[in-house]
Amino acid sequence: MVRKPPPRRRDARNRRLWTHAAPIVGIAAVAFAVGIVVGRGPDRAEHKLVTDYLRAWAHQDYSRMYSMLDPASRARVTQDAFTAAFQGAASTATIVSTTTGRIGKRHGDLVPVPVTLVTRLFGTLHRTLQLPLTGTGSSAHVRYSDRLLFPGLGPGEALTRHTTMAQRSTIFARDGTPLAQGPNRISPIPGVASQIVGTLGPIPPADVGLYQRLGYPPDAKVGLDGLERVFQQRLAGAPGGVLLGGSKVLASVSPAPGLSVTSTIDPRLEQAAIAAMANRYAGIVAMDPRTGELLALAGIAYSALQPPGSTFKIITATGALQAGIVKMSDTFPYATQALVGGVPLQNANGESCGGTFVQAFANSCNSVFAPLGAKLGGAKLVATAEKFGFNQPTGIAGAAESTIPSASDIGDDLAVGSSAIGQGLVQTTPLEMTDVAATIAMGGKRPIPTLQSGEKPRFVRVTSRHIAHLVQLLMIAVVRFGTGTVASIPGITIAGKTGTAELRNTVVPTGTTTTPGQPPPNSPLNTDSWFVGYGPVGHPRIVVGALFPAQGAGATTAAPAVRQVLAAALQHA
């Protein structure tokens, strides 16, 4: 019978065995860990390569992507061609964003990567990209192949897209009358529609990139101007099509019809504006100042830039009253001109005017407002004009942006004084000057113009209600006893401002002769005719602005036209 060792001796023996075995176990553990590191080393390096490449792809860092190609690929394709290929594929597939999932295990030369592509045309696509590699471990590189350009694209396969558009939707007037419907864009009121609807045509060269990204077919007809351009994407809907890799269908979607649009155009007021232009080259705008809705746009209402002449004095008066450099009771000497920066600036046709500030505004005295503008200074004059909407997009597609030189560029006192009376380099449209008048009508809040009926009105605070009230008093005086009396309507208080923008000198000094081939100084061809007006004062429902280029003084041409549209709006209500 074998006797068991005492417990103490057995414990001691175990301790000796573990003591001798410990170095062996430690060596084995280290060897196992080293084996893991060595075994996983290539996978780790390749994983980092793929991760970096995918991150660069998601950020469209094509230069970084190109740097990860193997030497043979870079010898085969230039960096410019590589970039163009990826940009072309993204444009064809209308890719907006790219995200990748968990990188798969390498099989041969390919690493599978789940990819989510958000596209404009085909929605969100979930695909697997097979990323080709050459080499192993730290020597691995990405191999250029067509399959890199889009998941599912095979070697030698081209990525192409065939797209179609749904039938264009209808544009309605605010009263529900169709302005443009069907493929031929017909209307039961063609005279009105022709003024505002605009035309369809081939994609303009400047917009090719935009419409490519949206998925439009190259031969698509798009809105070139008017309401067709303003509401282009809403009316056209979303294109449909098929994305092909060679002959394989990689994605497809049906075209989505557009949505009909009810515009703000009032056919009756549009017709009144057309009648007021009387087949003359002109632009007329009618706006509801309470909403910014454009009720009529006729002729060059927002497309042609011209110097605003004395209608700009609404802005100059606002800036001067805000700055406290003039009061309504201030008086000014009667004069035919004023020296600004040592240079004489004359009143229209050399007229003599002056008196109170109200009289100077009502009679549109350059001899008062040019020095006042210089005193206000370029910085404040430009800042005031920009609050009224100058140097800013209108928000209406196709509308020209009204401009005034920046405070740093506007120049000396003479340039500032000229700008203050709407001359110099100031350029604007009837739409902008109508909005200027609407700002005063609304107590200093500028309505943001809109052509879509039912939109929530938006306003920008330009000046205080008090300052706007003072400027409104000046504009009332214009119509009551100043240059704009022809715009008055019995029983309705109208506020307005004339503008006679000089296109060339209208006063020839004594002893000089006119330039051969030029019209005489008093010819209407020498001046643009402007007028803006609104009513009823206190409860404004309509603001109208008009421009008649090279057609005389504001009082003789534009003011009667504006009155005609105002009367159609106010006397019918």
Molecular structure report:
The chain is α+β, with helices and mostly antiparallel strands and about 575 residues long. It folds into three domains: about 45-155, Nuclear Transport Factor 2, Chain: A; about 165-260, Alpha-Beta Complex (Penicillin-binding protein 2a (Domain 2)); about 265-505 and about 525-570, DD-peptidase/beta-lactamase superfamily (Beta-lactamase, 3-Layer(aba) Sandwich), CATH 3.40.710. About 35% of the residues lie in helices and about 20% in strands. The chain has helices spanning about 5-60, 60-65, 70-75, 80-95, 190-195, 210-215, 225-230, 230-235, 265-275, 315-325, 355-360, 365-375, 380-385, 415-420, 430-440, 465-480, 555-570, and strands spanning about 95-100, 110-120, 125-135, 140, 160-165, 170, 180, 200, 220-225, 240-245, 250-255, 260, 285-290, 295-300, 330-335, 335-340, 345, 355, 445, 460, 495-500, 525-535, 540-550. It has a five-stranded antiparallel sheet, sandwiched between helices. α10 (about 315-325) crosses α12 (about 365-375). The longest helix is centred in the first third of the chain and has 52 residues, at about 5-60. The termini are far apart. The model is unreliable at about 1-40 (pLDDT under 50).
